[in-house]
């Protein structure tokens, strides 16, 4: 149970942190997508552990979006 609480709160906190970083639209905003990746990983693991396929599928889609964000904001060559 403690592991599920950790996943739940870490997923929530990293998701909020990523959103705040993107919202301020500053020089560090691009790192919001890395926080999203961490959040997605937590929620996917949580969804699998709690047998909630909707949550799992949703966060797999969010993971794809986060990976696109990392590509376009951080990794893509100029």
Overview of the molecule:
The protein has 78 residues and is an all-alpha fold. The protein has helices at 2-24, 32-49, 53-75. The chain has one domain. The termini are far apart. The model has no long low-confidence stretch (mean pLDDT 96).
State the domain count: 1
Q: How does the major sheet shape up?
A: none
Mean pLDDT: 96
How do the helices and strands follow one another from N- to C-terminus? Answer: HHH
Helix content bin? over 70%
Could you list the spans in which at least 5 consecutive residues all have pLDDT below 50? none
- Termini separation (Å)? 45 Å
Notable traits:
78 residues, mainly alpha, 0% strand
Question: How are the SSEs ordered, and which strands pair?
Answer:
Layout: H1 2-24, H2 32-49, H3 53-75
Helix pairs in contact: 1-2, 2-3
Q: Quick recap of the structure?
A:
With 78 residues, this protein is an all-alpha fold.
């Amino acid at each position: 149970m403690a592991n599920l609480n950790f996943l739940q709160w870490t997923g929530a906190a990293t998701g909020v942190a990523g959103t705040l970083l993107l919202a301020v639209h500053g020089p560090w905003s691009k790192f919001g997508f890395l926080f999203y990746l961490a959040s997605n990983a937590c929620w996917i693991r949580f969804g699998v552990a709690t047998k909630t396929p909707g949550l799992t599928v949703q966060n797999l889609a969010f993971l794809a979006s986060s990976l696109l964000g990392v590509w376009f904001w951080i990794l893509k060559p100029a």
